[in-house]
Amino acid sequence: MAMIEVSDLHVVFGTSVHAVRGVSFEVAEGESYGIVGESGSGKSTVLRAICGLAPTSSGAVRYDGAALKSPRQADFYRRVQMVFQDPYASLHPRHTIDRVLSEPLAIHGFTDRERRIEQALEDVGLGKGFRFRYPHQLSGGQRQRVAIARALILEPRVLLLDEPTSALDASIQAEVLNLLDRIRTERGLTYILVSHDLAVVAHMCERLLVMQHGKAVEELTRARLQAREATQPYTRDLLLASEGYRPLQDA
Amino acid sequence: MSLLEVEDLRISFPTRQGPVEVVRGVTFSLGRERLGIVGESGSGKSQTGRAILGLTPPPGKATAKRLEFDGIDLRDASAARWRSLRGIRLSMVMQDPKFSLNPVMTIGRQLIEAARRTSSRSESKDRAMAMLEAVQIRDPARVFKAYPHELSGGMGQRAMIAMMLITEPDLLIADEPTSALDVTVQIEVLRILDRLVNERGMGLIFISHDLRLVSSFCDRVLVMYAGQVVEEVKASELKQAQHPYTQGLYNCLPRIEGGQRPLPVLQREAGWAV
Amino acid sequence: MTRREWLLSDYPQSRRQARAGQSYRTWLALKSNRLAMVGLWIVLALVAMAIFAPLIAPYDPLIGGDLRLDRLQPPSWEHLMGTDDLARDIFSRVMHGARLTLMVVALVAVIATPIGLTIGTTAGYLGGWVDVVLMRVTDIFLAFPRLILALAFVSALGPGIENAIIAIALTSWPPYARLARAETLTIRDSDFINAARLQGASRLRILWGHVTPLCLSSVIVRVTLDMAGIILTAAGLGFLGLGAQPPQPEWGAMIAGGRRFIIDYWWVATMPGIAIFVVSLGFNLLGDGLRDVLDPKAVK
């Protein structure tokens, strides 16, 4: 059975901005699913609609077979967590890492907070020394590790990743991608990863959905993407563009 | 003869713990070619580009043994000298057009204002329109009358490039000119720059964090790390780069074809920054 | 390890050390601003004057000396700021007046800041009709000139320093509410607030734990800068006879008292005037310095 099922999802902001137009897909338990698109394709909005940050105008989002209500129940947040794109914007500037990590535990009434915080920092490769630092004392990669630790501390089953590495340098991106990969294998998590970078999605996900102008263009498996077996012209354009610059032969 | 000569460029910023050098002895020369400067954030690549135009933000200080553009010493250039160079013979394209275009003036007026510096009033308008066409804007008349906020990111960046190129500069410094753009638009913008180098013989310094893009676009690449140039390679030979930093930077990128899992991680060595 | 190293450590070992370190960094930044330090010293001097007024003041502030010999004496070593028309020592009255001024300042800050902050952040974060209602109420308060509204309050409640304080407090919160709302709007949709929502944090928790601390610093700066205006309003009410009542040594009322003989006996009105000027300036300098340190948007 599908862990997350999105069927004919529409998201309309205000009265006129139709950001997502009828997107459907299913993600099985333990799978890593990618959504690729350029700015304005609605890829991030799909992610936000799943977790309730964007309004669902019509269609449905199901978790473990049950349709989700809006607003989401507290229980949902223990199962599904999100990592945001910009590590500089997703941590409260006046909260120490300790506070960032202990807050979700306090909200959901966990008792052994000390142990869990230390464990979470250990899991993302930061160690105890970082516990009482402020975000401005950390680098971009370290902040993103804290954001991942925050998402993991409630032990969710699904992680929504919104361009988790696009604000990071290439070498740091590799470290964070490896971390995410390792955590998924260790814990059997389900990922939905949104990115504009085909290479990142191809590396991280078994299946992917290409989106443009709020609509799904096509769904591909990793193997078919690697074999360049895209059927839609837009996907082919993306594939071509991701190879870098190529001078025009003879215009 | 080369267009730009930079020798031992150093840029330092004062801090509470004393001055910190962010660029430490960069030397290169540029002909009428596409030179890429690649590095991660904090490598000093952007500061290098700014220093060439004399735009080091205060309280930073830039010094060099030699900083010559077309035989003109830029080190102690007067304000009047800079006015006659900047935007006319030397131009710069920044990452985000939103911060570089005047939000309360139409694109057309800004273009004409730039064009007026080298040509007469009557010519300016024609040149502005011609320039918009040259950067592949499909409906130049509409863009001419539009305000910056009415344009998409790609259009805004093209308008910005049009403005920087309307005076037909000899040297263009492009600081991450396509990083804010979608990949498909990015290629089109690069095409425009490419044509200008080929047709007008302009010199281009292309500053970017994207090793793959730079290696496919430029002729030559300087790789910067911790304020120094660690390696200079021909773009086509980047895969055979010698320096472990360049290799690490190249290898840690994920590939569509798949490859190593986990990705090889860049192991920094203290020796590189000395 | 010295205390300084402990405070500036990049690897604090406890919550307390992290917080102390953060405060110490703010203090270091403030300390490097010389004008702000001047302001801080003036404000501290005001506090010291208020606390130790009975010890510093050489004479009783309310009971004057011999009306035949000691009236309207010019400044001398005996009476540093001269005496007034009831033969009271002006220096002693100014010292004791600091208590009243400090009380006004402290009470207004304690009353107005929380009101403005709560209304502003609530309106900004919740939006919708809550925002409309709260902001229209704020607009109504803003539409009256502060002194006039304070006058109306005082005439309704009766003259006296307590009523003047209440009146000033009730008229000074609207700008803070406006400011807090504007700040809230900019942080309401930021990712760290979204992240808190996704952890299941309640609205109250987000408002108090996440939004308010970020609005607090700019509101504190604004309140500090407004202190000069509040002191002047209090003095103005005193001057008009609606604030502190005689014989209380309120600076505004003292100026009003000295107004009649300002040509012949200039010091009677001037001395409390200088006190108002210096204290107002002190708060302004301190506020400017605090803005540089606390307001993240200010350009360094």
TrEMBL record, chain A:
Record InterPro entries: AAA+_ATPase, ABC_transp_ATP-bind, ABC_transporter-like_ATP-bd, ABC_transporter-like_CS, P-loop_NTPase
Single GO term (MF): ATP binding
Pfam family, one: ABC_tran
Uppermost EC category: translocase
Stretches assigned to the ABC transporter domain: 4-238
SMART domains on file: AAA
Keyword Membrane: yes
UniProt keyword annotations, A-Z: ATP-binding, Cell inner membrane, Cell membrane, Membrane, Nucleotide-binding, Translocase, Transport
Subunit structure: The complex is composed of two ATP-binding proteins (GsiA), two transmembrane proteins (GsiC and GsiD) and a solute-binding protein (GsiB).
PANTHER family assigned: GLUTATHIONE IMPORT ATP-BINDING PROTEIN GSIA, TRANSPORT ATP-BINDING PROTEIN
Record family assignment: Belongs to the ABC transporter superfamily. Glutathione importer (TC 3.A.1.5.11) family.
Protein name: Glutathione import ATP-binding protein GsiA
Organism: Cereibacter changlensis JA139
UniProtKB/TrEMBL annotation, chain B:
Domain of life: Bacteria
InterPro entries in the cross-refs: AAA+_ATPase, ABC_Ni/Peptide_Import, ABC_transporter-like_ATP-bd, P-loop_NTPase
Protein keywords: ATP-binding, Cell membrane, Membrane, Nucleotide-binding, Transport
GO molecular function: ATP binding; ATP hydrolysis activity
ABC transporter domain boundaries: 4-251
Assigned GO CC terms: plasma membrane
Bilayer disposition of the protein: Peripheral membrane protein
SMART domains for the chain: AAA
Compartmental location: Cell inner membrane
Keyword check for Metal-binding: no
Pfam hit, one: ABC_tran
Family (UniProt): Belongs to the ABC transporter superfamily.
Stated name of the protein: Peptide ABC transporter ATP-binding protein
Automatic annotation (TrEMBL), chain C:
Cellular component, GO, one term: plasma membrane
InterPro entries for the chain: BP-dependent_transpt_permease, MetI-like, MetI-like_sf, OppC_N
Subcellular location: Cell membrane
All residue ranges annotated as the ABC transmembrane type-1 domain in the record: 98-287
UniProt-listed PROSITE patterns: ABC_TM1
Top-level taxon of the source organism: Bacteria
PANTHER family: D,D-DIPEPTIDE TRANSPORT SYSTEM PERMEASE PROTEIN DDPC-RELATED, OLIGOPEPTIDE TRANSPORT SYSTEM PERMEASE PROTEIN APPC
Protein name, entry field: D,D-dipeptide ABC transporter permease
Natural source organism: Cereibacter changlensis JA139
Keywords from the named record: Cell membrane, Membrane, Peptide transport, Protein transport, Transmembrane, Transmembrane helix, Transport
Membrane topology summary: Multi-pass membrane protein
